[in-house]
Amino acid sequence: MDSALMDAAVARAKAGDRPAFGQLWLDLSPRVAAYLRSHGVADAEDVTSEVFLAVFRHMDRFSGGGAAFRALVFTVAHRRQVDWHRQRTRRGTWLTLDDLGSEPASPSAESAALAAIADEQVVAALGTLTSDQRSVLALRVVAELSLEETAAVLGKDLGAVKSLQHRALARLRRKLSPDPYPRDALARLNARHA
Fold this sequence. Notes:
- This protein has 194 residues and is mostly helical.
- 75% of the residues lie in helices and 0% in strands.
- The chain has ten helices and no strands.
- Helix 3 crosses helix 4.
- The longest helix has 26 residues, at 66-91.
- 24% of the residues are buried.
């Protein structure tokens, strides 16, 4: 949703317009869930619902437009994922409903294997990052927040966020491509300029 539409939806939601709440949910909830999953929250959909319930409950006190609303949503999401991890540490490992049984309609073995491989690679790559680095990348890429908004959500200064982003991207680059200049890429580059 572009910024003008987001601003309008936020204004309508503040006035109590239910379809506007739905529009904001549809636009932001997949990003919030992805942010939570990137931090290892097993029941990301449930926590996403909690985030939006908390935000919508206090919508009458919110002031600002779409960008401020998006930053608020991800601030709450960040705090909820921290709380989720604290709670899990205190209670120990627990099962979600998804862990208890298979779904009635299962994907094909091939698609399940490909999805598992892709998920494992992403989780493994993200696992090499610090929690702060994961947060910065998720807020910048998934939530599409600016550097300034990301700094506000995390309670860090702008320079720290830039540094975290730079280090995270460098670490992922090394993880995903240990050789920064693969031979075949160098050969193609040399062939073009010969």
